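To illustrate this point, we now present one chain and its tokenised fold:
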Amino acid sequence: MPKFIQLTDVHLMPPGSSLFDTDPEVRLRLALRDISAHQPDADWLIFTGDLAHHGEAEAYALLRDILDQETTIPYRLMIGNHDNRDTFRSVFPDQPVDENGFVQSVIDYDSCRLIMLDTIEHGKHSGHMDAARLAWLERRLAEASDRPVYLFFHHPPFRIGMNGVDNIRMVDDEALLAVLKTHPAIRHMYFGHVHRPIAGSWHGIPMSMCYGLNHQAALNLGDSRHRDRVGPAEYAITLIDGPSTVVHFHDFLYLYPEIVTPGMDGSGGFKRTMRTGAVPSQAMPEN
């Protein structure tokens, strides 16, 4: 059964730097440690962009060191509007790119294909997919034949009702949709950029987004302002079982009471194990 994990919007800073009074390094390490402890059988970690907040080489070098230290699960890195493509490629030369240098790639299972897209236009916060990138996507869809396809983007190509985010969404929505219609089995789409847990569909294609690792977008429906806040962080786990696609969202920073109701623990009894409190966002737990 394919199992992969989405992490998004890490916004790493150079070592020792904070962002919005939090430490992105700590939050990323906590996420990877939680995955190692509870999801060690994941096939892939897929990062859907905004790896570094300002696109500095020092931040990407820190990301490389963290990944080397904290996980043995294979990973695929995508870039977002806060990233710098050239700097990223200089630090991660092993991450695949297409023939034009865009950070686009595929992961193949026997039962499905995952496609990671590069929606970045340097100097702009909005998303773009030009003719070359769309042609690459169309070829990768054709290669998938009748296998289901899962697509990963940084920018969503549709409005979500938050004007501050909608103003910097992907602008090439009609051209993208025309390409997607060439494949009969787009099973699910994943997005970063938004910093909120959202699910729904676009032209009948299911989609989801999750909280970023460092900071979140406040829910301001219909408000033109964009506000960031420090809040929960999560990663998303996808399980594929034949025609079934299930996406779990896990807010890994928090521990809750564990309750087993009467009759559901196998003995007809009642068990309650209290695990309360939160992992401090600024304190690294002991190894």
